[in-house]
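Input.
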Amino acid sequence: MDAKQKKVLVRILIVSGIFVALLAAEYGDGFAAVGLDAPGKRWILLAVHLIPYLIIGYDILWKAVRNIAHGQVFDENFLMVIATFGAFFVGEYPEAVAVMLFYQTGELFQSYAVGKSRRAISDMLDICPEYANLETDGVLTEVDPDEVEIGSIIVIKPGERVPLDGIIVEGSSLLDTTALTGESVPRTVTAGDEIISGCVNGSGTLRVRVTREFEDSTVAKILELVENASSKKAKTENFITKFAKYYTPLVTVGAVLLAVLPPLVAGEPFGLWLHKACVFLVVSCPCALVISVPLSFFGGIGAASKRGVLVKGSNYLEAMAEVSALVFDKTGTLTKGEFKVAGIYPEGCSEAELLEIAAHGEVYSDHPIGEALREAYGKQVATERVTKAEELPGYGIRVRVDGKRVLLGNEKLMKREGVSYAICEQAGTVVYVATDGAFAGSIVIADSLKVGAKETVDLMRHAGVKEFVMLTGDRQAVAEAVAKELGLTEVCAELLPGDKVSKVEELLNKRKEKEKLAFVGDGINDAPVLTRADIGIAMGKFGSDAAIEAADIVLMDDDVKKIATVVKISRKTLTVVKQNIVFALGVKLLVLLLGAFGMATMWEAVFADVGVSVLAILNAMRVLKMK
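Output.
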């Protein structure tokens, strides 16, 4: 509880004590000993009730006056002031104090709930580093991260937060990425690894070469994303905002008419109808809706952030509840993007001999296929055995290994060089090998599925998503093998980036108005598609720039299962929002009807406003506690 909340709580406790004492004195006839006539007693009662009223409600009075001065007349502060003034006017002093007391109690609950939701997101805001240890000629100086230039060396000591993105040049440690990903298990980093701002260094001292200035760093982009999240409101929030804008003036006019017309037209007692008008004002206050609906969405965004998912606005959270089609990129999204040797098929030689030739042939290649072959070989490659290496774009490599003419590449290379080869039907990238014009065999390089990819598709299908599409630039056979294993409904392979956008647009045209299409990509080469889809979900790669900028939702740790988590959070949030709207309007309508027949007092009105608000706030907070 912060200082402001503590002050309000103290005022509530003080006024509650005074209020109970006043009620005991008044209804226990404790004022009879004063010996005054009825008018004199009334003035004393007014004076003693004004004390707790002003203690508990002076800030509400000030806000109402200030807003009126700025032209913002009709808000909940104005309604509370008018209603309580009316209650004082008709002699209902305890009711006037009670309305303000319970209204402030509701405001305290609201403040606490908002604070709890903000704390769920504040882990993201706490990632901002206060300083960086800049190393200059062996001397460390604490400087503002804004002052560090690209290429500078910074030192990160155990327990310190990483201030800037960079590459480790010396040291190894465990990196706590909880604030970014929601994962409690630290990851090991060592020299040569990329490190991003916002994480916490664990056990070892690290020397890091800075690769991005602070304004372009991961932490700066995440902070900007979180701070701007509340500006993008859901359709339900916008409706409630517009509703309150017109509803409050209408309620005020209705209360005035209710107080004036019956006495003027039917000669009814003015005090009776003024009291009914005050009850009407208190009941009609839109606090429960205006507070609980945004708070529910805010809680949903907070619940997602606790799990390492950044949602750029409540509109995207709301849209996730209506997803009917999920479109995936393949590499880096459904698969790890880590190429491994999946099969070796020699012709006229052993598997070991074929792999040895291929590894030496790719000795100078920095392509993932070359790296996969050398890794599978597992031995030191002798560069002196390799001569005349020549890369053939679109085909492969021509090279001499131990004086033999070696060809490594695709089917087109074999055909161009006139090599008679056996077609490999295995799923994956096939590397055909030939030595001195004779076919030596083929090696299959394949990407493995990400952990949780199959589970994600199953969970989303169970959640009601009907269409699962994969878009990839990979070969048709590879794409179909992955799709079959995951149970996808449609596959589009051998696509260029522009083709992916066209395909997403085609899928969007098939959607009904309330059906949403979400695209999941790695955020680097899929930025155009992420932007075009109804909802762009990026695999964060621990905070890649393209992911954070292009997507509407970012999974900070690449865990595809969290897509299902976001859908669950969004649907829970919308359920809570609908419950609050129905409950608030239902109770208010019931008390208004009772008030019209003279069966509802100011106490029932207070419950219909403050009580409903508190219950709606407590209901909204359930989103934060989702498991």
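The mean pLDDT is 80.
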